[in-house]
Amino acid sequence: MAKRKIINIDLNKCNGCALCIPNCPEGAIQIIDKKARLISDLFCDGLGACLGHCPQGAITVVEREAEEYNERMVMENIVKQGKNTIIAHLKHLKEHNQAQYLQEALDFLKERKIEVGFGQVALYGSGHAEHGLSGCPGARLMDFRKDEALKKGKAVSSRESQLRQWPVQFRLVSENASFLQNVDLLIAADCVPFAYADFHEDLLKGRTLLVGCPKLDDLAIYEEKLGQILKNNDIKSVTYAHMEVPCCFGLGQIIQTAIQTSGKKVNFKETVISIRGEKIK
To answer: How many domains is the chain partitioned into structurally?
Structure first.
């Protein structure tokens, strides 16, 4: 078992009110002996939909050794509860950018020939999610690579963006996003695109981007997330682009350690940009 986020219920605080139950369509929580209890790690996605509905503050999200969440087992439970519960679950996954789980759920419904009245959910691209299945616009997953086919045969401006996906901020990108599969990854310190004039053509072109600040952000979070990205996806290479200032170098070591720990063969390259916007190496 690997460490992952999962709910924890403080039985001393829980009064058995059951307000958390309707907000866990996955069926991970049941009232047993007048207390809310997590019945199986397999059913808890760790996203915490139940948290805000506990008046006693008895439910928190923790990180511990736990069995992997199983979307197909969850769907077996959910389809028994009817269309509204199915839609609530799909909306829950969509709003938390759980693209892989959402696709598994949709595949499950298709296999069982279960119609819930909204058709296919728009996972990526410029289209909007249907029937209210929309989260924060700033965190909505978008895969721009699908638009590249439309550009073939057309003249490309030197100023054209080479961004292939959204979001790009390290903490907002889901570890299971489809645009992380079988790609060359660019991890860039957030000052680099401002300092380096050729960022798009020289560094970003053909790569999937993650952006963060090695000085101000919590690097432990980055180390954990990158470990999950490497575990869940086939990453061909990682390029770390950062400024020449000392505070930028620490993330490079974390990236290399995460690659080594993953046990996968991933090429690593480091590019340093001077404060005057020149590539040093």
So the answer is: 3
- Joined together, the tokens standing for residue 209 give 């981007």
The whole domain housing 88 covers 71-139
pTM for the full model?
0.53
CB neighbours of residue 162 within 10 Å: 17
Find tokens 């997953």 and name the residue.
141
The neighbouring-strand residues paired with 30 are: 37
CA 62 to chain centroid = 17
Return all residues near 174 (Cβ < 8 A) that are at least 6 apart.
Answer: 96, 97, 98, 99, 100, 141
164 lies in the same domain as 248: yes
Identity at 42, one-letter amino acid code? L
Render each residue's pLDDT in the chain as its tens digit; 281 residues: 678 889 999 999 999 999 998 888 788 898 988 999 998 888 898 888 888 788 899 999 998 888 888 998 889 888 887 888 888 788 878 777 777 888 888 888 989 888 876 444 443 333 333 334 444 555 556 666 656 655 555 555 557 899 999 899 998 888 888 899 999 999 999 999 999 999 999 999 999 999 999 988 888 888 889 999 999 999 999 999 999 998 898 899 999 999 999 999 999 999 999 999 999 96
Please enumerate in sequence order all residues whose Cβ is within 8 A of that of 38, keeping only pairs 6 or more positions apart, or say none. 6, 7, 8, 9, 28, 29, 44
DSSP string of 132-143, one letter each residue: T----GGG--EE
Residues 119 and 40 in one domain: no
User: What is the bridge-based pairing of β-strands 208-212 and 165-166?
Assistant: unpaired
